[in-house]
Amino acid sequence: MKNKPQLLLPAGDIEGFKTALLYGADAVYCGISGLSLRTSCAFNIDEIREAAKIAKNCGKKLFLALNLFSRNSDMEPLNKILPIIKDIAPDGLIVADPGIFQLVKTQIPNLPLHISTQANICSSLTVDFWRKSGASLCILGREVSFKESVEIRRACPDIQLEIFIHGSMCISYSGRCLLSSFMASRGANRGLCAHSCRWKYRTRFLFEEELRAGEFLELIEDDRGSYILNSKDLCLLPKLNQILNVGFDSLKIEGRNKSHYYIAQTARVYRKAIDDYFDNPDAWNADRYMLEISALQNRGYTLGFFKGTPNESAQDYADTSSRSLWRSVGKVVGVKNNMLEIEVKNKIEVGESIEFLSPYQFEPIRIAVRELFDGFTGERILEISAGRVAQTALIPVENLERFPKLTAVRRFGV
User: Fold this and answer.
1) Which pLDDT does position 174 carry in this prediction?
2) What is the pTM of this model?
3) What crossing angle do the helices spanning 45-57 and 75-88 adopt, rounded to 10°?
4) Domains of the chain
5) How many whole angstroms separate alpha carbon 128 and alpha carbon 96?
6) Which of 56, 66, 71, 171 could pair covalently with 229 via S-S, beta carbons 3.0-4.6 A apart?
7) Where do runs of H (alpha helix) occur along 3-123?
8) Residue 325: pLDDT band with limits 50, 70, 90
């Protein structure tokens, strides 16, 4: 059997970083403010130092994303940040731009460099180029089929390989998209994507391709609009057993823009699925894990390019709303007055049941809300909703130790 790969989770803030580790991530990647492709999800220097210290103390890894495509105006901030990165000493730096690769290699020669999916690595030839250039890991493009990835692994045994196994899919080629720039003056390749491909568009015309005269391609619009560019979300969980047999070094979850619940749920589900496979591969079945991963808000799931170029089933032309009826209601932020204190994200009512995703067991723990108190005033209440400022609720729960800080809480129904 192959060695167990690392499970790599995203984090958009320090709380997301801690959540990923709590639920079983082996490593976490995060962005550097102003210099990665998720400008709204970037750590400041103090938070990166804190994350690096936490990771080191618990035997986990921290990777930093410096994966922008550089402009001349980036030279000054790049030269300022590199000495700081050298001092922090993360476990790796994710880059896409060959110029930045060369700059880092010169200034921090011992720092492991990971080549981003933005570099569009789709062949063993390209992997070998980066290996010879000094990269320690290549992240294969999401356009690579499973068959191709197996061939790359066999042809390139002397470098680490990473693949995406879950997350949002881009309608363009691994994020190389100009639609957001055109529609919203927000450059996707500068970390400012407005997700214009998810918008609804009004359609008024039939399309006719010049070599197919008389063959009209209809764009259908209903009262919700037309979602002609909306990809379903990537989920390779049904094929995880095949993936684990290849010998990839790292399995990556997309989503630095995603919620606390998303990080907790993807980490716990994939952690359990990976560990169960290595414990007993013959008994492994994806159904148990799919039931849980489907409780995440999602646009429908697709295998992406796993079997080759996907067909229209990878798109959802109807709408972009979630297929899941589960919703996050918040997260545990502590214990107060011998009750769990929950930061509220969606309404909680007396009489309903909510589920706690304890990091200590895979089965969700369902609890009926018989009493509810305002976290600020201590007043007994019948319901509570999220407010403009962080709103907390107190719920009496037995065995409080099952639910540490950052435990995710959800309920069924929108």
Assistant:
1) 66
2) 0.87
3) 30
4) 6-169+231-314 (3.20.20.70), 200-228 (no CATH), 326-412 (2.40.30.10)
5) 16
6) 171
7) 14-22, 45-57, 75-88, 98-107
8) confident
- Which residues are paired to 6 by β-bridges? 250
Q: How far apart are CA 22 and CA 359, in angstroms?
A: 7
H/E element holding 63? strand 61-65
Written as six digits, the tokens of 263 are 């990080």
Q: Which two tokens stand for residue 145?
A: 């089929």
pLDDT band at 318 (very low <50, low <70, confident <90, very high): low
User: Could you tell me the CA-to-CA distances from 107 to 78, 82, 112 in Å, in that order?
Assistant: 11, 7, 12
* pLDDT of residue 85 exceeding 70: yes
**pLDDT surpasses 80 at 181:** no
Which residues, other chains included, contact 237 with Cβ-Cβ below 8 Å and sequence gap of 6+?
Answer: 165, 166, 269, 270, 273, 286, 289, 290, 293
- Strand-pair category, 326-336 with 339-344: antiparallel
Local structure of 400: helix, strand or coil: helix
Who wins on pLDDT, 191 or 80? 80
**Residue with the two structure tokens 């197919």:** 212
Q: What's the residue count for the chain?
A: 414
Q: pLDDT band for position 295 (50/70/90)?
A: very high
Query: Between the CA of residue 95 and those of 36, 66, 72, 197, what are the distances in Å?
Result: 9, 5, 17, 25
Instruction: Report which of residues 189 and 270 the model is more confident about.
Output: 270
Please report which confidence band the pLDDT of residue 32 belongs to, taking 50, 70 and 90 as the band edges: confident
The helix/strand/coil state of 119 is helix
Q: How far apart are CA 392 and CA 390, in angstroms?
A: 7
Which of 317, 272, 326 is CA-nearest to residue 298?
Answer: 326
Please give the pLDDT value at position 13.
93
Question: Cβ contacts of residue 328 below 8 Å, gap of 6+?
Answer: 259, 260, 261, 345, 346, 408, 409, 410
Mean pLDDT is lowest, of 25-29, 61-65, 215-219, for 215-219
Instruction: State how far the Cα of 288 lies from the Cα of 291, in Å rounded to an integer.
Output: 5
What count of other Cβ atoms lies within 10 Å of the Cβ of residue 57?
Answer: 8
Phi, psi angles (nearest 5°) of residue 254: -85, 155
Q: Residue 404 burial (CB < 10 Å; 0-12/13-18/19+)?
A: middle
